[in-house]
Amino acid sequence: MSSTLSEITDELAALVAAAEEEVGAVVDAKALEAWRVKYLGKKARLSVLSREMGSLGADERPAAGKVLNEAKARVQALFDAKKAELEKQPGAAAEAPAIDTTLPGRRPRAGDVHPITKVYYEVRDFYLRLGFGIWYGPEAEDDFHNFGALNFPEDHPSRDEQDTFYLNDGLLLRTHTSPVQIRAMKAVEPPLRIIVPGRCFRSDAPDATHYPVFHQVEGLYVDKAVSLAELKGTLEAMGVYLFGPGTEMRFRPHFFPFTEPSAEVDFTCPRCGGEVCGVCHDGWVEVLGAGMVDPAVFENVGYDPEAWVGYAFGVGIERLAMIKYGITDIRYFYENDLRFIKQFK
Ligand code: DAH
């Protein structure tokens, strides 16, 4: 080796500076490999110098070895850093296949509105057009709102008809949306015209027509002169809106503690039009409960029962959807099987 220590030191400094500058321009694995061969390969200047170290005088060898090792370490560090940087880039792996831009793209699967939501929207839109507002209430209720204020007597069997999930602290999962009637009337002065959508809960074992979670839309209309005829006319119009022209309605006398008189309301089956099919049993489908607000309920919320009258109703959304789409098992709605869900576009 003919160079002196100071010449070697200068050369290495220049080499490191050049390596540093060039690595900045490296943008892919191929360029990095070329850079590595140039600065760290067997024929690289650093390797040649290493091999020639032995020919240096014994007095200069340790110092020369030190600067050489430092230079190697610097260049190796540049390589490691750039390699790590390239590996972090997506699709950087050297063996990643090239993208075939001629292949057709994969269409992302678009979501859609669940059939339960769809049917709720229809009911909602009907009542919004009539000038009803929307009110919401809590799913965890207390006995007063779910039962007491709705005129369910203590220890009366009608409470057991709605198998209730009880929670801690005197709370329960509401068994219907009717408690929100109470909350709304306690919150605002009459007149009042609202619908209340929401989830309800009953501890029923799931079968073709029962599910422990289901949806209702409650309706409440309170004013100075609200009549049973108005209730009938409104519900009849709803039946036509949901099931189509020619749909007929019938009121069957029934009992609900919070309405008097009360009725269960049926429509002619939109699927078979009066024949008997899998959805109906006698050409009629039962869709909701309704009635005139019981004066006792008005008293419980502080409305003067002499001054105000009202009607109320509660529609089961699953029931409506089953009739509308001819679904014979309520459990399909909650299995979230895409083959089922996709049919309601
Ligand atoms: N809450 C009743 C139920 O879940 C349905 C109902 C019936 C609601 C009559 C009403 C009504 O507002 O007037 O079975």
Structure described in brief:
The protein has 345 residues and is an alpha+beta fold. It has helices at 5-23, 29-40, 45-52, 61-88, 115-129, 143-146, 157-161, 179-187, 228-243, 295-301, 317-325, 332-335, 338-341, and strands at 133-134, 140-142, 171-173, 192-201, 213-223, 249-256, 259-268, 284-293, 309-316.
Kindly provide the name of the CATH class of the largest domain: Alpha Beta
Low-confidence stretches: none
Which percent range fits the helix content? Answer: 40-55%
How does the major sheet shape up? 7 strands, mixed
Mean pLDDT: 90
Order of adjacent strands in the largest pleated sheet? 1-4-5-9-8-7-6
- Give me the number of helical elements: 13
Q: Could you spell the SSE succession in H and E letters?
A: HHHHHEEHHEHEEHEEEHEHHH
Sheet-strand content, in percent, reads 15-25%
Please count the beta strands (DSSP E, at least 2 residues each).
Answer: 9
| Level-2 CATH architecture of the largest domain | 2-Layer Sandwich
Class from secondary-structure proportions: alpha+beta
Shape, please?
elongated
CATH T-level fold name of the largest domain: BirA Bifunctional Protein, domain 2
- Terminal Cα separation, in Å? 83 Å
Rg of Cα set: 39 Å
Tell me which ligands are bound: 3,4-dihydroxyphenylalanine
Write the layout of secondary structure elements.
Elements: H1 5-23, H2 29-40, H3 45-52, H4 61-88, H5 115-129, E1 133-134, E2 140-142, H6 143-146, H7 157-161, E3 171-173, H8 179-187, E4 192-201, E5 213-223, H9 228-243, E6 249-256, E7 259-268, E8 284-293, H10 295-301, E9 309-316, H11 317-325, H12 332-335, H13 338-341
Parallel strand pairs: 1-4
Antiparallel strand pairs: 2-3, 4-5, 5-9, 6-7, 7-8, 8-9
Helix pairs in contact: 1-4, 2-4, 5-11, 8-10
Bound molecules: 3,4-dihydroxyphenylalanine.
